[in-house]
Amino acid sequence: MASVLLRNCINALKNHSRLPFSPAKLVPEVQEATHVAKSLLGLPFTTKAKTMMMKSQNNPVSEFKIDEYRTMKVNQINKALEEAVPMQHPTLLHEAMRYTLLAGGKRIFGTLCIASCELVGGNESVVMPLACAGEMLVTMAVIQDDLPCLDNDDFRRGKPANHMVFGEATAILACQALFCQAIEHLAIKTKVVSPERLLRVIVEICSAAGSEGVAAGQMMDITSEGKEVSLTELEFIHRHKCGKSIEASVATGSLVGGGNEEDIERLRKYGKYLGLAYQVWDDIIDATGSAEMGKKPGRDLQRDKATYPKLMGIDEAKNYAKGLVAEAHKELAYFDSSKAAPLYHMANFIVSRTY
Fold it and tell me: Which domain of life is it from (predicted)?
């Protein structure tokens, strides 16, 4: 039964885009073990998931140094965020905003946004306001998520949660301020992008945060606690609670970078697969992780939440996430491999991280 539902999930994702789902132009060579399990996504996976490798040993994708790239982009995003949300009156409100925003984090959303922009010919200086806006919206979401009325977490990004330091009222106001600051910063600081494209970007990121995105996923998440949830329902929660944000980060990055409609839609499909993979892997980390993850592990189990490890088991959940990443990789084969390398390896990072 689980296999049928998983096959339906992946087919639904493939059929969601306006563009037909077609094979990648440069199909990766696959090394697989002798024992193959074919039931997870309707795709043939080994019990340890397939290892995707490009055909050429000298391919820019295989040679790309993702750790150096990530470190560079994280540092640049952090610097831009420091400038985007300065300390000012009222001090307490801005302290609360900056406390979680500048507490570190993986900056996955901002990095994906920049990488997708650069992939289609844009440059970092043009897309940085959008990368910052995305990180502000992510921070807003995690402050909300930690509140006692929602997930009731007291630890985030290696520090006490925002409401534990500033109180619930200030934390809520910080969320409101971060949302508004994100849109204002994006609208004012974005240069050399047409008004039409900038409007599309604003609509996209607002939709990803609202009743068709994070808010919808969070609503379904809290109303599903302690209940029997199907894999189809769980996919809805995960694709909206976090997946929509990742989808928006790559779609809007390509919009700002000047991508054509086919570029944008292929990257949107990449984002759909990667967004769901990200949340599936988060479930796995929560079930198996340690304090390294920056918040207390095992919270999903304590709150009796529906998760992929709970419904499928750890090993099948890992294979499912890696299968989604393999599908995301296919969308990148349409692009120049050297320019697509950051997104290729960011996808691999998402399903190999321990935090």
Answer: Eukaryota
